[in-house]
Amino acid sequence: KGAIAFKDVHFAYDPARPILKGISFEVPAGKTVAVVGPSGAGKSTLSRLLYRFYDVQEGAITIDGQDVRGVRQKSLRAVIGMVPQDTVLFNDTIAYNIRYGRTSATQAEIEAAADIAQIGGFIKSLPEGYGAMVGERGLKLSGGEKQRVAIARTVLKSPPILILDEATSALDTRTEQEIQTALDIVSQNRTTLVIAHRLSTVIHADEIIVLKDGGIAERGTHGELIDRD
Ligand code: ADP
Ligand code: ADP
């Protein structure tokens, strides 16, 4: 479940400057496809179109054959999980930040999600900045720890489709590798669209799409793309 198809997708924020000029590719159910390309190529725009922050102007995006323009945002959010580049936390416990929006989640489910993301040790902690008014001291979370909260959130939500939008690009190399390992686990058996800026971070993708000048410049596995260089 959750097969995605981009079919001849055209999009421009400004009609005078088209960003996507006829993009077609598929993410088969359960597979991982990565989109790479220079900054400004329109990689994040693809994920925003899938999520319906904007709608395509020509062509279509489908999930299991259904045009997303016929699906309400609320329903899309139920099937798509997103780990963004920077995670903004609410001023409440880590457990609350993991559970947010899923009021039916049990404590055991929250703890299991936190363990998979390897933040099980401090789910009762508060992020830094919390409690300034009441004199409580919070915990300063590193960028990697914040990404772990976002991953735990996604594990708890357990959506069939996952968007990883440069989810490790703000991290140092060692943390990036640790988070990548957690993301690899979460993306197993989910339809995953990875937005990446470097080929080296998407070695395991089933296919890599290279976006350039509004089109697909190259596509293939990591090994194939490296060989062509
Ligand atoms: P990438 O993710 O590949 O870096 P984006 O999809 O974020 O690229 O952006 C593609 C182009 O669209 C960029 O030139 C960017 O400046 C422009 N752009 C992005 N968002 C908007 C917006 N909301 N309004 C106008 N232009 C935008
Ligand atoms: P729901 O409770 O409806 O499932 P979530 O709170 O899980 O919704 O949000 C769905 C996903 O959408 C989250 O993973 C979040 O990262 C992402 N998201 C929400 N708002 C934005 C936004 N403005 N930009 C990018 N991603 C967003």
UniProtKB/TrEMBL annotation:
The reply to whether Nucleotide-binding figures as a keyword in the UniProt entry is yes
Naming one, the record's GO cellular component terms include:
plasma membrane
Q: Does the keyword Metal-binding apply?
A: no
Q: Name one GO molecular function term.
A: ABC-type transporter activity
What does the UniProt entry say about where the protein is found? Cell membrane
User: Where is the ABC transporter domain positioned along the sequence?
Assistant: 4-229
Alphabetical keyword list: ATP-binding, Membrane, Nucleotide-binding, Transmembrane, Transmembrane helix
| Family affiliation | Belongs to the ABC transporter superfamily.
What is the name listed in the Swiss-Prot or TrEMBL entry for this protein?
Metal ABC transporter permease
List the range of the whole protein covered here. 361 to 589 of 628
